[in-house]
Design brief:
The chain is built from ten helices and eight strands. It is α/β, with parallel strands linked by helices. The chain has two domains: about 180 residues, 3-Layer(aba) Sandwich (Rossmann fold), CATH 3.40.50.1980; about 110 residues, Nitrogenase molybdenum iron protein domain (Rossmann fold, 3-Layer(aba) Sandwich), CATH 3.40.50.1980. The strands form two sheets. A four-stranded parallel β-sheet has the order 2-1-3-4, covered by helices on one side. Helix 3 crosses helix 4. The N and C termini lie far apart (about 75 Å). The N terminus is likely disordered.
Length: about 300
């Protein structure tokens, strides 16, 4: 009788442990990891592959990344071919059938938004371009609601018992995000209609959200650093442009941006490209707070 009771208790504890087990989620970038955490709360366990100091296009495909993927229930990626240069070999090495493309455990967030500036006929001569469109869509805060919905919906599919929780969490997150957007838009309203120069095509969607116009990229083509002669030509081309500011990501060399800004005598800013890239940008909200503070006139 004692053995029967003991076996029953063990089975019960195993069941409860399984029922309350967190969904194991791996995100390619820090902002995605935080979004999943904001929606999943204690129902998820989140790991991030790329360090925030990395260029998101070029993440070293170390074996340790495959280890993180090996037991994952869900892999959430940026998409838009941003991870195309480093994620596929890591996925193959992980050998986890649950999170392969086209499976329920694979979520491409770019499928929930419309990518700007698609270039279906681009070649390598055009530089490091993305045929499906600009993959830096996260810099448009208007996209976040759709992205959060995509995460919540997939968590519901994988963890049906907690679906109500995810839906409530989504509603709370979106309410906070909409309130934050109003605050950010008010602070940056003076930038509407002004001209922007960027190092890489990272902030096209941010400029669109702000009502700004990108008049030049410092790179001659995406992914190729500017030469001295290119910078001189760019300076001449911008001579008649009323440029409000020049921006670049935190991981890029600052020499070209600083030189151009000094020649034009305009403001220049380094923007954190991911959650965790700076001490202040601890989550999605503080990350955008910092971006807004750095852009504010």
């Amino acid at each position: 009788m004692t053995k029967i009771i003991w076996a029953t208790l063990v089975a019960l504890f195993c069941y409860l442990g399984s029922a309350n087990a967190a969904v194991q989620v791996v995100a390619t970038y820090g902002w995605i990891g935080d979004l999943v955490q904001q929606i999943g709360q204690d129902r998820v366990s989140v790991s991030v592959l790329a360090q925030p100091s990395f260029d998101p296009h070029f993440v070293p495909p170390k074996p340790s990344l495959a280890v993180k993927l090996r037991n994952a229930d869900l892999l959430v990626i940026n998409g838009g071919q941003l991870e195309i240069g480093w994620l596929p070999p890591v996925l193959r090495q992980a050998a986890n059938a649950r999170i392969q493309p086209n499976s329920e455990g694979f979520l491409d967030l770019s499928s929930f938004v419309t990518l700007s500036n698609p270039r279906p006929h681009a070649t390598r001569a055009d530089g490091d371009v993305h045929p499906d469109g600009n993959p830096h869509y996260v810099f448009n805060p208007d996209n976040m609601s759709a992205l959060a919905y995509g995460v919540a919906h997939r968590l519901c599919q994988l963890d049906k018992a907690s679906c109500g929780f995810y839906e409530q969490s989504l509603a709370r997150f979106d309410e906070r995000w909409q309130a934050a957007k109003i605050r950010w838009q008010a602070k940056l309203a003076p930038l509407k209609g002004q001209h922007l120069v960027q190092y890489h095509e990272s902030f096209d969607d941010l400029a669109h959200w702000l009502g700004m116009t990108v008049v030049a990229n410092i790179e001659p083509v995406p992914g190729v650093p500017p030469s001295a002669s290119h910078l001189e030509k760019l300076l001449k081309r911008l001579a008649d442009q009323q440029v409000a500011m020049i921006v670049q990501e935190h991981f890029r060399d600052k020499e070209a941006t600083e030189w151009l800004a000094k020649q034009r005598q305009v403001k220049w800013q380094v923007l954190p490209s991911d959650v965790g890239a700076t001490e202040k940008s601890k989550d999605l909200f503080s990350w955008f707070d910092e971006i807004v503070d750095r852009l504010a006139p």
